[in-house]
Amino acid sequence: MSTPTERNRLQDTASPYLRQHADNPVNWQPWDEQALETAKEHDIPIFLSIGYSACHWCHVMADESFEDDGVAELLNEHFVPIKVDREERPDVDSIYMTVCQQVTGRGGWPLSAWLTPDGRPFYVGTYFPKEPQRGMPGFQDLLENIAHSWEVDREEMKNRADQWTAAASDQLEATPEPPEGVETPGSELLESAAGTALRGVDERHGGWGSSGPKFPQPARLHLLLRAADRTGQGQYLEATVRTLDAMAGGGLYDHVGDGFHRYCVDREWTVPHFEKMLYDNAELTRAYLAGYQAVGDERYADVARRTLAFVERELTHEDGGFFSTLDAQSETEAGEREEGAFYVWTPDEIRDALSGPDRSEEIDLNDETVVDLVCDRYGVTSGGNFEGKTVLTISASRSDLVGEYDLEPSTVDAVLEAARDRLFEAREERSRPNRDEKVLAGWNGLMIAAFAEAAIVLGDDAYAEAATEALAFVREHLWDADGGTLNRRYEDGEVGIDGYLEDYAFLARGALTCYEATGDLEHLSFTLELARTIESEFWDGERETLYFTPSSGESLVARPQELTDASTPSSTGVAVETLLALEHIATESFGDVAEAVLETHASRMRSSPLEYTSLVLAADRLATGSLELTVAADEIPRDWRNEIGSTFLPDRLLARRPPTDDGLEAWLDALDRSEVPPIWAGREARDGEPTLYACRQRTCSPPSHDVGEALEWLLGDPEN
Questions:
Q1: Cβ(342)–Cβ(432) below 8 Å
Q2: In angstroms, rounded to a whole number, what is the distance separating the alpha carbons of residues 176 and 601?
Q3: Three-state helix/strand/coil letters over 476-522
Q4: Residues whose CB falls within 8 Å of the CB of residue 507, separated by 6 or more in sequence, listed in order
Q5: Which residues contact 292 (CB under 8 A, 6 or more apart)?
Q6: Mean pLDDT taken over the chain
Q7: Which helix (H) or strand (E) holds 113?
Q8: What is the mean pLDDT of residues 446-462?
Q9: Cα–Cα distance, 189 to 610 (Å, whole number)
Q10: pTM for this entry
Q11: For 696, phi and psi rounded to 5 degrees?
Q12: Residue 507: what are its φ and ψ, rounded to 5°?
């Protein structure tokens, strides 16, 4: 029998994940018109495999099945095999993952789906072993059975495809009809969602869930912090602190090279899935910065600094953009690729790393007592906690070590810092995990916002420089200024894929935070351009919602919305909150769009507010208004920046403007506006000095030259 696909075409793609499968005997096709037309032309089903480069079980299924000649023969003869990188095509992933979750009650990657030639799914699952085991069907048997069924029972399979597609379309596309007189959701949802989050917190180990796996939930931490600030109830803050401490002290955090892994498999936050994702490190950095503002614990600031240092060192393009992921696997001394091999230790490996000539006259790292102290600190034992080796965790506090080893606290600190440097150097000699070097617009937006927020909170201009360099990279390579459109992916000079709502929304938030951090009008202007495209391409005025895919984009079997938070925040929630912030600056109807989206989904949010955390935060912003801090000055004074940055102001909008109205005219010309936005109107500098206006809900403090006085006026208002 001839094969409908003549060759494996993945070598021609830009995705590192797809290219990993370019040598498979399977004639993989990318998701494109050629592959889809081939299925229709030959009237044979599509086998769709969706994964990503840092996915452990994706690699396992590839090793077991996709590199097997017998499996490849079945796939090549009876199917059009298509491989998709979920990080490049979240729209495709969203549709078929929704079906998988509806049908099987669970999801995950690799996602395996069999589709009719026109793309409707009729069989779905995740990882399948090559041979049957533990109640799972064997992949090779499945291929044979499905190929046979397609020949003899095709109508039944098509009927199932119709039903599944309709169900997925209803879940992804549908918008509820709001009842008459529905009230726009507001701040009441904040306490409702926070209360639900509080009841689900693991009181012993932090985070959510009574067993593994445990995922970081940055949006929930922002929710709890905002509820604590709004209500003054200490339990919200306590739950946040417990979770921040647990994540930073456990195996989720890399105690040698910094940065966070994807999630942990156990309740205690000990053993992670070792991949490192750009988006996790962006959103967790913002969460620790907010925790630092709310609690004042310097440890949280240190976690943020070290995480950003990791990103600059290991996930930053030489021209400023940010790469996507580091793989979970790396090569062992035996030449095999194993999960976590780069990160785990034995006592002997600790001893070897600390041995050798010292650079410090005060500390003898060759001392066996020091080896014991370091092993105690990080919980390194001969038995280990992960396949005979140890994932490092903070297993002994500094005070514990001071008492156990009868040392001064400063000595313990010096030993640990010197040892950490030596462990880092030793680890650098190991085979490194692979890096996925595609630059995604949306994920870069998240990290740009994290760096810019760090510049504000920590008062370090170097972070603002990193943020604006990355923003410039994205604008240069992914933004079409003439068309006002954004591409999603840049990889080694190649650009492609129409941007999704998350790309526009996340990048708009990043650009807006750059404006807050620098006062540079160019960043605000770009934010407004992105917001206009959000309205023109993603806003459906008839259904009054924002869709995930652009109206001018590829037509799939469903047009998804992204309302809930998952591994990344809800793109709809981020878009709505950003549009609400821009309402104070723009003359467009951004605020009306945002309010309409919240009204459309009000019933969903009220029925399960924690599921829609980002939208709940946006609804709270709509109800209370942004906290406007307008600074009329050529530059925001350093002490003002420090005071504002160290204060927990979760819905802050820091907006510099020129000190005089003459200077403001030039800004309006640059923005092509005739009207002065409300946030700048009538707020010029007084007495030739930098002047601060603190405002909310159209009520403002008196013009002030004292940042503390203005903030005291604001925070002392019982309505706030």
A1: yes
A2: 7
A3: HHHEECCCCEEEEEEECCEEEEECCHHHHHHHHHHHHHHHHHHCCHH
A4: 441, 442, 444, 445, 448, 471, 474, 486, 530
A5: 298, 300, 301, 304, 457
A6: 94
A7: strand 111-115
A8: 98
A9: 9
A10: 0.95
A11: -155, 140
A12: -70, -35
Torsion sign, CA atoms 123, 127, 132, 135: negative
* Rounded Cα gap, residues 95 and 137, in angstroms: 24
Please choose, from the candidates 648, 639, 620, 625, the residue with its C-alpha nearest in 3D space to the C-alpha of residue 690.
639
- The answer to whether 470 touches 447, Cβ cutoff 8 Å, is yes
pLDDT of amino acid 718 = 38
State the Cα–Cα distance between residues 4 and 450, nearest whole angstrom: 47
pLDDT for 696 = 84
Contacts (Cβ under 8 Å, ≥6 apart) of 359: none
Listed in sequence order, the residues at least 6 apart from 206 whose beta carbon sits closer than 8 Å to its beta carbon are 239, 242, 243, 244, 245, 246, 247, 269
Sheet of 691-696, strands arranged across? 652-657, 627-632, 691-696, 699-700
Report, as an integer, the average pLDDT of 688-695: 95
pLDDT attached to residue 319: 95
What are the tens digits of pLDDT across the range 35-79? 999 999 999 999 999 999 888 899 999 999 999 999 999 999 999
Q: Do 247 and 241 meet the contact criterion of CB atoms below 8 Å apart? A: no
Show the beta-strand stretches assigned E in 535-690: 539-540, 545-546, 627-632, 652-657
State pLDDT tens for residues 458-471.
Answer: 999 999 999 999 99
Find out whether 497 and 488 touch, Cβ atoms under 8 Å. Answer: yes
Burial of residue 177 (number of CB atoms within 10 Å: 0-12, 13-18, 19+): exposed
Whose CA is closest to 157, among 121, 128, 127? 121
pLDDT, position 35:
97
Three-state DSSP class for 327?
coil
**Distance (Å, rounded) from C-alpha 694 to C-alpha 697?**
11
In whole angstroms, give the CA distance from residue 40 to residue 310: 47
Residue type at 491? E
Tell me how far CA of residue 206 lies from CA of 31, 249, 669, in angstroms: 41, 11, 51
Residue 500's Cα: distance from chain center in Å? Answer: 15
Could you tell me if 391 and 343 are in contact, meaning their C-beta atoms sit under 8 angstroms apart? yes
Structure tokens that stand for 558 in this block: 């469903």
d(Cα 361, Cα 370) in Å, to the nearest integer? Answer: 14
CA distance 276 to 326: 5
- How confident is the model at residue 179, as a pLDDT? 62
Sequence-ordered list of residues with C-beta below 8 angstroms from that of 336, at least 6 positions apart, any chain: none
Task: Residue 550: name the closest of 475, 488, 474 by CA.
Answer: 488
CA angle (700, 704, 708) in 5-degree steps: 95
Token digits of residue 605: 């949010």
Question: In the prediction, which pLDDT does 411 show?
Answer: 94
Q: What is the pLDDT of residue 491?
A: 94
pLDDT in tens, 289-305: 999 999 999 999 999 99
Give the tokens for residue 13: 């793609």
713 pLDDT higher than 90: no
Q: Are 520 and 514 in contact (CB under 8 A)?
A: yes
* Block residue for tokens 């797809």: 18
Tell me how far apart the terminal alpha carbons of the chain are, to the nearest angstrom.
73
Tokens (6 digits) for 307: 């995480």
Calculate helix-pair angle for 501-518, 441-458, nearest 10 degrees.
20
CA–CA gap between residue 249 and residue 185 (Å, rounded): 37
* Helix axes 501-518 and 461-478, enclosed angle (nearest 10): 140
The residues with which 545 forms a beta bridge, in sequence order, are 540
